[in-house]
Amino acid sequence: MLEFIPVFIFTLILLVLLVVFMSFGRLPAYRPSRVQVRELLAGVLDRSTSVESWELFLGLPIHHDAELEAVRRRCVAIHEGLEGERAAGTGLDGYLYDRDGRERIGKVLAELDELIRHEPITREF
Fold first, then answer.
1. What is the sign of the dihedral through the CA atoms of 24, 28, 29 and 30?
2. Closest CA to 108 of 75, 84, 59, 83
3. Would the CA dihedral through 32, 38, 44, 47 be positive or negative?
4. Distance of alpha carbon 21 from alpha carbon 74, whole angstroms
5. What is the helix (H) or strand (E) element at residue 67, kind and residue range?
6. Where are the domains positioned within the chain?
7. For labelling, which of 22, 26, 46, 62 has a CA lying 20 to 30 Å from the CA of 38?
8. What pTM value is reported for the model?
């Protein structure tokens, strides 16, 4: 019986801490800005984007910005060959894509630059 009380108190403290952390914590979210996505796309062209960060960008939907989600979907279409496009080939010497794939990513980058240029200063939600 003597061992039960310290084990019970220790377990109770752990459970209370767990509840507190879960109450005040927040879920991790992938919320890239347009400038961060621009840097990612530019990195595809100049070999500075890692495969992991590119796969993360392609694999997670962007719910907070519809235009940025459209950019992501165009990149997925280039990567996987959807919407009547053929898939971009694998690049050489550190590039993620071949020349044709990089040219198509460059077009998406130009459109994103245009979106950034016309982005409003404030946004109503």
1. positive
2. 75
3. negative
4. 39
5. helix 66-80
6. 34-117
7. 26
8. 0.73
